[in-house]
Hints:
- This protein is mostly helical.
- The protein has ten helices and two strands.
- The chain is 71% helix and 3% strand.
Amino acid sequence: MKIDPKNKTDLSAQIAKAIRDAIISGDMNVDERLPSESELADQFDVSRSTVREALKRLAAQNLIRTQRGATGGAFVRRLSYDDAYAQHITTSTLLLSMNAVDFETACEARFALERACAPLSSARRTPDHLATMRAEIHRQAQPGLSDERFCDSDVAFHRALVDGAGNPVLSYQLAGAVEAMQPLMNMITFTQRNRDVIIGLHTRIADALEMQNSADADAALAELTAYTLTLGEEAMEARAKR
């Protein structure tokens, strides 16, 4: 592992990247102990405070864990999908908001990814996934349910659809689409939407998955896509008239 002292990039960031690259490449294995702070300082020819800052960066990325005691130190951490979800959702939310991604682009990406999950979810969904979707449909139909709670339920419904595909990599990749894009889309469209229409489409999706009919699930998702795009256009027009 090496860094370039002449590089203007923060030395601690360079060290963190060097260690991160070693972990990703497999040169450092899960649960392997990193060299001590003193050893790393000597290896990179930097101060221990610079090494500590690099280790903090790696810990913030969930790439290492620390352990105290005689057998303590910093160790390569096994990153789980659950650990990665929150970070992925936060990053996706910031990316969308900071780069002003337009509604149509976000909607296109989110539903294209979700429709790709439909065939797998039709084949692999469990009774628990179906029960979650049915429970959320029932919740969405409750009178007096606030817009915020309806949005939460909307996300939970689609999360179950995605998780029903039984593929943790897809679930991770779609966490940003469902749990970052969808709340932003809901914020734009909630004043325009008809809950009965959404509940009807959700019911059709759940029915199709229960019958393992991927074509019907895809058709309902396609209608939901078109409806959501129409809501977005109406919401934008309403804002423009204010």
